[in-house]
Every structure is written in C-alpha cells, then in structure tokens.
Amino acid sequence: MCGIIGYAGQSGDTLDVLLGGLEGLEYRGYDSAGVALSNGDLSVCKREGELYHLQEAVDGGLDGPVGIGHTRWSTHGPPSNQNAHPHTDCSDDVAVVHNGIIENYDDLKDDLADRGHEFDSDTDTEVVPHLIEERLAEGATFEEAFRSAVARLEGSYALAAVSEDSEAILATRRDSPLVVGVGEDAAYLASDVPAFLDYTDRVVYLDDGEFARLESGSWTVSDAEGKLLEKSVSRVEWDAEETAKSGYDHYMLKEIHEQPRALRKCLRGRVDELTGSVEVDALEGLNPESVQFVACGTSYHAALFGAQALREAGVPAQAFLASEYAVAPPPIPDDALVVGITQSGETADTLSALREAQRRDARTLAMTNVVGSTAARECDGALFIRAGPEIGVAATKTFSSQVVACNLLAAALGDRGDAREVVEALRDLPGQVQELLDSSRAEQVAERFLDAKGYFFVGRDYNHPVSLEAALKMKEITYKHAEGFAAGELKHGPLALVTGKTPVFAVVTGDDETATKTVGNVKEVEARDAPVVAVTDGASEVERYADAVLEIPETHPRVAPVLANVQLQLVAYHTANKLGRSIDKPRNLAKSVTVE
Ligand code: AGP
After folding, report:
1. Mean pLDDT of 363-377
2. Residue range 453-471: mean pLDDT, rounded
3. Among 305, 441, 495, 590, which residue's CB has the most CB atoms within a 10 Å radius?
C-alpha cells in the first residue's frame, strides 16, 4: 500500500527517476513521501503531504548514483515528516523504505532501545536500519547486515535499503510486491511496473524470500542463503503512454473513457461470434463443479455478479468477502474452484483468502489485471482481464472488464447452450459503452443533486451489485454518504432514511417480473418525497415515477449492468469534480491495499 522506487545508474539522473517513479506510485499512498540518495554520503529528504511538498523541498538538491524513494499510506503513526520514509539508523548511514507491516517491531524496538538506539518515528519500519547498523558495527558487509536484519522480521514486507558505504541497493520481499526493471546501463526497483515504465519494459518479478542487489547497470537475485538464482526477464505489454493522463483532468475520467477499448481487449480471442462458443484458456485442466469467489471492494461487487451469472448458468457459485473468507472460511467442496477477483493481484485480504483455500487443497484461479502479480503467480491459473493500467484509486474500467470476464466464465463453465445470446450482447457492448459515454446526461444529474444529504442506489438481481458499486464509488470520491441496497430490502429498514433530500437511483432493466417489483419499490420511495433517478433501458414503467432518467440501450440482462454502471460512474465523477474533491487520490485510501 505504500510505493517503493529504487534506481542504480548514473549520478545526475537519480533524483528525476525517483521523483518520476513516485508520481507513478502515488496511487498506492500519498500521505507523505521521501527519498535517500547515496554518493559516499547519504542524503535524505522527506515531507508530509502529497508528493509536490517533497518535490519543492528537494528542488534538485540531492545527487548520487543510487537512491531509493517511498510514498506512504500510514499504518503505524500519523502522516508527518518523522514518520515518512526513508528511515535511518542512529548515525544516518543507512536508509530503508518499506511497504507492509513488521509484526514483531515492538519487541525489536524495545531490544534496540535497551542497547542505546534512539528512534525518531512511530513506525514499525525504523527498527530495520537500526538492526542493519548493529551488524555493520560488528564488521558485517552491507549485504550480510541487511540479510541478518531481514531474518529477524516477522510480518509482511517489501524492503529496500541503501548505505553511504555502498553503491548497491539491497531489496527483498515477503507478501508485498517488488519488481526489478532491467535497463541498458541502469537497474530499477519498484512496487509496481508503471513507476519505471518510461525507462524500461523489461522486468524481473521477485518472489517471496528472494533478495535483489542492484548496482549501476547490473542486478542479481539470490535466495535466503545467498545462492544466485536464474530469473527470467519478462517484457510488459503496457507502455508509458497508457499510464499518462492524455489530456483528461483526472485518471478516473480517462479510465472511464477507456472502457470500450478495455472491453474489446477482454473479449479478443475468447469468443466465437459465429458459434457463440467461449474459450477461456485459464480454465484448462480445472473443470470445476462449483465456484467460490473471493474479493474485496469493487472486485467483490464483480464477484457478486459472477456468482449470480454462474448460478443462472447452472454452476453452484457463491461470492465471499476475502477478508472474511480468510478468517472464517466456508467448507470447500472437492471439485470447487476458488476464484480470486483482484485488479491489482496484490490485495492482501484476497491473497490471504486464496492461500487459505490452497491450504485446504482447493484449486485456485486469479482473475486479475496484472500479469506477474502475486495472485497470478500463486494460483493454479490466471484469467487476465486486460483492462490496461488503472491509476485512479476508484476502480472503473476494471469493474466492467471483471463483469465481462465473469460472463465468459459463466458461458465457459455452464450456460446450457444459451451462451450465444450473451456472446452477441458482449460483442455489441464496447460500441454501446462508447455511445453512452458520448451522450450521457450524468453531469446534469450530478449538478441537480449536488446538495443532496446522501444518495441511495437500488437494484435487484444483476443490478444489485451495480447499486452496491455505485454507492461505493460515490462515497469513495465525493466523501458523501451513499448506500446501495437490494431494492426489496429498502422497506425492511433503510426506508426510514429516505427523505426529500436523499435522491434514490434505481437501476431497472428489462420488463420482467423483477423489473415490475423494482418499480414497486420506486413508488414506495417516491411516496416519501425522495427524488428518483431511473437508470433504465426504458423497457419498464419506471420512467413514469422518475424525476430524472439516465438511459442505457436494451441488451442482455447479464450485460446491462455494465452499461448502467458506466452512467453511475459518471454521476460519481461529476459530483466529486463539482465538489472539488481529490478524485484520483481520495483521502485515507490507496489503490493497492497490501495490508490486512
Ligand atoms: C474501489 O474503487 C477500490 N479501489 C477498492 O474497493 C478495490 O476494488 C479493492 O481494494 C480491491 O482491489 P483489487 O481489485 O486490486 O484486489
């Protein structure tokens, strides 16, 4: 959840690479940032607040051939200059950056304090440079001291360290991502590839327990005993252009507009439009009889959709919150497949749930956006959603791609021969999303209800996950109260909150019995003076009871949720924009949540 960057190359370039890399990692955390550069002397600069505070403070003033940087999402201690990384030892000779949680830091800190070490911060991380310092004082090399310090840590970590006596960056990981970038005459290190994508697309993914040593233009990876490992260098498909804002005011808006392309990529090579058949390579050899989805946040909403789609296709399926599954797992049937839906592939709760399933001998599949992510590497199979990099903290295009990928799973695993209609609808979906983006009246709706005290979203069946997702998006980026409900549940309690100042967004598609029941629920809120916004394909009567309408085209019921959700993404975006919120980096949040 914090972001780490490292560079070993040429003096003169280091600060630019580090600061540029931190910009690319800000989505992981942005409450403080810092850098440490070494050129025989160690210089450290760190600042509370967003990255520009650090940029102003360093003002080009630090140099050296190696350096590390960090952007923080607080776990131990509030955002402050002291708690910002890098952290140093007593004599400021060693600097360390860390992502994760060191669980035994209290004991280590007490021991170190008893031996005279002084601490400046509230963080768990600060014990690491002091442990390194102790071993250096005993005559160990920097690498020996680093390994010995790491051996004493419990918990999760991606760590990188520099020392004033060495031109190397030392790094290691356990349960937190870390990737090496291989340049012509420089080596890079980061929590995530976009941090150095301007310089190289050749990467080496570190596995848990491995150690990397980066020097100007060279890198090695070794195991815990120091034995050198042969690691393969992969090429990443994303390019730097994809991770830029490309003229949009916010990444979120750019990513909303990228959905037609993302969806085409997700479908490419997986559906046969002529026969209606669906091929999902990732399922090869798995042949499950039932499915359990585990996921968090937006991905959990996609999982709810996926479980419903599979059940309708004849495959028993359930969706679980990964954080609950990890601590209170359900029985797993013998032929079940546990599918982790995770955009980043690094969410600690989801990884923990998948590992729990593996411990109980279940087969696992990662549905993820990131090739080389921990989930992709640890599961028996990986189904890539191919949405391209998503930088905005609020997930948008990846939700749409996850819903499409769930449709593919349902068609591949079940569907009793009626996949053809879904496939036809999926084929038309990217074009429909484009038309909707071009014609949406979401901005006017956002303006009209800008003063609302809170927002409610309701839907049934496949539109229930959409109502949950729309509410999450709204609260995440506008900081206003928003809740999503199964429409039928309103009358069991939440209706007490509904007033003339709480618009209710009702997602109603089709004109079947489900739609009729939802229209009935809409009448109930209308009778309590609540303004109603209908998100609808016009097939039902809901518009008669609506104060505003957001239209979507008619399509298959398993595809309509994507279209309805795009309208609601835009409502959340425009509401947040008009309120002047920090859309891409909402307060207290981070894109990739690598702590439990
Ligand atoms: C949603 O906008 C959030 N970014 C969040 O709920 C996110 O979906 C969740 O943290 C799971 O992330 P993942 O898909 O990378 O596992």
Report:
1. 93
2. 97
3. 305
Output phi, psi for 306, to 5 deg: -60, -40
How would DSSP label each residue in 380-441? SEEEE-------SSS--HHHHHHHHHHHHHHHHH-GGG-HHHHHHHHHHHHHHHHHHHHH--
Closest Cα to atom 5 of ligand 1: 297
Q: Which atom of ligand 1 is nearest to the CA of 295?
A: 16
Mean predicted confidence (pLDDT) in 302-316: 96
In this predicted structure, what is the pLDDT of residue 594? 79
pLDDT of residue 418: 66
Backbone CA torsion sign across 300, 304, 305, 307: positive
CA-closest residue to ligand 1 atom 9 = 297
Distance CA 352, CA 532 (A): 40
How much distance in Å is there from the Cα of 247 to the middle of ligand 1? 25
Tell me the CA distances in angstroms from 440 to 409, 445, 571, 581, one per residue in order: 30, 10, 10, 21
State the Cα–Cα distance between residues 395 and 523, nearest whole angstrom: 32
Q: Which of 591, 507, 594, 595 is CA-nearest to residue 26?
A: 591
| pLDDT class of 275 with cuts at 50, 70, 90 | confident
Specify whether the CB–CB gap between 96 and 150 falls below 8 A.
Answer: no
CA dist 402 and 367 (Å) reads 8
Residue among 2, 266, 296, 379 flagged as catalytic: 2
- The atom number, within ligand 1, closest to the CA of 296 reads 11
DSSP state letters, 28-90: G--SEEEEEEESSSEEEEEEESSHHHHHHHHTT----SEEEEEEE--SSS-SSTTTSSPEE-T
Residue 417's pLDDT band, with cuts at 50, 70 and 90, is low
